[in-house]
Amino acid sequence: MKELGTLFRPEQYADPDESCVLEDSAVAYDFFTDFFEPNGLVFFIGLYLASLKTKLLPAWAYVLPHSDKIISISPAFQLSESERSMDLTITQKKLVDDELYFYWNGKLHAATFTSTGEMVIRGVRCILNVKDMQFVAEMNDKTHIEDIYPVRLYQESTGKFLCICWALETEDAYWYESVCSDDDHFIDKVDVHDTVSYPINIGEEVIIGGDYYFCRYEHDWGGTCFVKTNFKATDKDRERENLILPPKKPEPFVPRLKVVRCDEKVIKKENKPTIVKLTPKNLSK
What's the distance, Cα to Cα, between the start and end of the chain in Å? Predict the structure, then answer.
């Protein structure tokens, strides 16, 4: 059994989709050696298909040492009936020699190397540096990101701290992406028009996914990034992040006039007004 090794900054990752049947190169190697001679090499490849539904099919390839040809290919994910019946015409095979982000079943995944040089497939929990965030945002060929920067996001009406996000700008759009998917539930039911954000400076400490991180600039790790500390954040820590809103000004008093119709027929006798004559009795005729 191959030594799988450890992941670089494992807080970035989560379990892959449950349909991932070959989740790392060690498992894939054991699979191939059940059918072919051992001591071969396993590579992670992207199969680009002539299909509108699925353009990229993540797969493992097996190559024997004495051969330069791929002798077997197996998809990393179990295919559904509809996926097995789709057009599997391969237009391009691309060897993955660096970390790769891709979507499967609507969930973002990453194929990344471990400390022993093996490759694993994992779900993406956090996008911790601006370079990776730009790559993911531009996976749609029609999107060109002009600027990305980290922000604290708040609910404007209450001042409640929501989460740490990447603010993304294009020529005609502006939106937020949460740094960590664990924090998505804080913003799911908040109207985007009821939010306000403030930029985060290098060196600031922030709360992401229940942990404390430092915002730093690391050239070798994609520029602006978040680095995890060993400290957990409590609910009280999150509350301390809330904004203190100024007291609401009382609404100005607006007098309201009420018109009451007085009907002489319904006035009770005891409430009948007293009539005061302006002319003295002794002066009257």
Answer: 130
**CA-to-CA dists, residue 170 to 143, 147, 180, angstroms:** 8, 7, 22
Instruction: Say whether 238 sits in a helix, a strand or coil.
Output: helix
Contacts of 197 (CB under 8 A, 6+ apart): 151, 152, 153, 154, 165, 167, 176
CA-CA distances (angstroms) from residue 265 to 11, 262, 269? 84, 9, 10
Nearest to 197 by CA among 235, 128, 148: 148
Q: What gap in Å lies between CA 216 and CA 229, rounded to an integer?
A: 12
Q: What is the 3-state secondary structure (H, E, C) of 42-107?
A: EEEEEEEECCCCCCEEEEEEEECCCCCCEEEEEECECCCHHHHCCCCCEEEEEECCCCEEEEECCE
Q: How far is CA 31 from the centre of its chain?
A: 34
- In the block, residue with structure tokens 């973002």: 108
DSSP 7: B
CA angle 263, 266, 272 (to 5 degrees): 90
pTM (2 decimals)? Answer: 0.81
CA distances from 88 to 62, 82, 93, 139 (A): 19, 12, 12, 21
State yes or no: pLDDT of 205 exceeds 70: yes
207-243 pLDDT tens trace: 999 999 999 999 988 899 999 999 999 999 999 999 9
Beginning with the edge strand found earlier in the chain, give each strand of the sheet holding 174-178 in spatial order. 174-178, 161-169, 147-155, 195-199
Q: What is the pLDDT of residues 111-134, one digit of tens each?
A: 999 999 999 999 999 999 999 999
- DSSP-based three-state secondary structure for 283: helix
> How confident is the model at residue 284, as a pLDDT?
47
H helix or E strand, kind and range, residue 225: strand 223-232
